[in-house]
Amino acid sequence: MKLLTTVILFVAICIVSVTYLAVRGSLPVLDGTISIAGLIAPVVVERDLLGVPTVRGTNRLDVARVTGFLHGQDRFFQMDLMRRVAAGELSALVGKTAIELDKASRQHRLRTTAQERITNVSIAEQQLMKAYAEGVNAGLQALRVAPFEYIFLRARAQPWRPEDTLLVNYAMYFQLDDSDASRDNAYAILHDGLPSLLREFVLNEGTEWDAPLIGDALTVPPIPGPDICDLRTDQTQHYVRGQIPLTFSATEERVAGSNGWAVAGRRSSTGKAILANDMHLDLSVPNTWYRMRLIVENAANPADRLDITGVTLPGAPAVVAGSNGSVAWGFTNSRGDWSDLVLLDLDPDNPNAYLTPDGYRLFDIHAETIDVRRSPTVQVDIRTTIWGPVVGADSQGRLRALHWLAHEPEASNLKIIELERARDVHQAIRIAHTVGAPPQNIMLADSSGNIAWTIMGRIPLRIGYDPQLPSSWSGEQTGWRGWLESADYPVVLNPDAGVIWTANARVVQGEELELIGNGGYSLGARASQIRDGLLRLDGATLEDMLAIQLDDRALLHERWRELLLAVLDSNALAGNLRRAELRTEIAQWNGRADPETAGYRLVREFRRRTGDELLSELVSGCGNFVEPMTLRRLNQSEGPIWRLVTEQPAHLLPPIYATWQAFFLATADKTIASCGNDSLVNCTWGEINRVEITHPLANAIPFLASWLTMHDGPLPGGDHTPRLQQGNHGASERFAVSPGDEANGYFHMPGGQSGHPLSSFYRAGHEAWVRGEPQSFLPGDTAHTLTLRPAE
After folding, report:
1. In angstroms, how far is CA 326 from the centroid of its own chain?
2. Among 205, 415, 461, CA closest to 316
3. Percentages of the chain per state (helix, strand, coil), in multiples of 5
4. What is the DSSP string of 663-690?
5. Is 6 exposed, middle or buried (0-12, 13-18, 19+ CB in 10 A)?
6. What global pTM score does this model have?
7. 577-599 pLDDT, tens per residue?
8. Over 70: is that where the pLDDT of 286 sits?
9. CB under 8 Å to 107, separation ≥6 — which residues?
10. CA distance 287 to 103
């Protein structure tokens, strides 16, 4: 038995050792000289102590090729997942657990769209994507073994193709857009089920928190009177008490937290414009972004030299956000309306045909095959229209198709790379309007002190219908009709205030807002907090920028604290120790989304429960809905909810309560109960808002989880604060820079440059992000040098 145990132990050690050596073999090459095919001239890669590369070449194609080489060595698995998610090809790598996800993605047929689109982009874009793809594959081949993920999955890394860069772009569409028009569906349900005045109240467009660049804050419509909706009588109730057909959940409220702003040179301490940006995304390992500095020397024409620093997206050769010495740029999600539900008018004589502006047409049926690792293939028939895939019927049985901006070939290209040559904000604005990518707010600053905002991305011209509601597009004057011209895009250039800010909220109003549409833009609380912070500055500094980015003051929740304190009066506290404890905790709360204290969590929970119950009772008691469902809380619902709790109309008090005070106390008691039996001092925000930043394989291979996990614990920040941190959704980077003064800029991001856990760059720089400490925007001193030469 002892001998057997020794043998087993020896075999286990051998297996672990062999696996470890194999995994080490997939570490990227950092030093030396490598020859790769396709290079025109040598390219030098200098990495600093964080692994951030500076790539020096003599032409843009060579630099794109080497960018692909580095991405392929450091981040190939990440790129592979992105292209597979967009194309609906994930099951071929990870097995049957991804079949349903693949089915949902495959209905868009984006692999086919990418293959067709790449032949129609400019020759320059084709050359860049081809050089980049060849560089990725050269980087893979230069590894001694495949990236470590494929070792554990026992799978082969498939070569990168030029059209895969477009698929990575489509993957970002999935992340940033309402890809299934779910908001339109929810809006239609409420629109059809509520009386008009109640609908206007519930579906309000804005609140006093609004902070647009153009226009004013909007007023919440008045509360409908008892003649429209009276919850205290039986006549208007269309549901059985206790079986509410329509409920709202604030926990389903769509998280968004990107911040971006620009400060004009005349308002900064140095006289130089400042661009600050923190794009919020779902966080994982490796990080979405890959830092780079790209330098293209031109000996024949030194004025044509390029020097760009910022973040790239593995899968593409462009710097997505950063600075080129003349112009700095960054993004926040526009939250525009980029998808629509199209009602289909079926041929009464043929249910397989639908009406178009050119008459009836048969549905197209595309037979798609989903490859599944270690399982039989899955066949899927996708029924499509001229507008997009058929996505089922509504509650009235009307068939609908989905039209999404990503379906349009012109909405995907590589023109974002042209921003690296912009010499001022005017030129950058024109370029932004040609970019094929998910439409974003782009903030710009240039070396002459100018600042600007506009929409980056293609904006469709919509005519003849309400984009927020499903509509028939069978008429000639209904639907999308071409693209908005650059001259007609909304633009803010050098405003009198000397500052520009965006935070996923409404930026414009009126006709300009109609061009962008309302795709569920965020409540304006975060934007107004940023605006006020900027306007208070006199001689803004980079330190000021970081302070605003890290601002975790929960100003929206302050008024909810005051409400709860008023509710917890002496009568409410009499003989109730738990309520007294609740009052103590919120009274001494420091006003921040502090993970170490209970105050924020308790006030947040009280607000959430109050709003959910009031909205659910209101729409169910006074609406008419066909089937039970739960809807995500509308982003502007703070307006009507706050109006209800402050005006306290008797006819809209949920009928199980005798008074509004009774309702508030019941909600306070539910808030207490949500913490269990423990002392409320231990009911901290950090207990439930844990941030676990980990690798996609961590759950699939549990024994590797601790090795792959980057962060597991609480962090400051919460809902509607500039430092928004909700679960694993948070700042994917933070930077601020003055174009032309990059040496004094700062940057940090979660996770390191490398996606390899044995690399010293896997975690490098992460703690600076955790602590909110600035690191250099430019790469530091060279620690490793790799020269890539043309293959002979």
Report:
1. 27
2. 415
3. 40, 20, 40
4. HHHHHHHHHHHTTTTS-GGG--HHHH-E
5. exposed
6. 0.94
7. 999 999 999 999 999 999 999 99
8. yes
9. 88, 382, 389, 391
10. 26
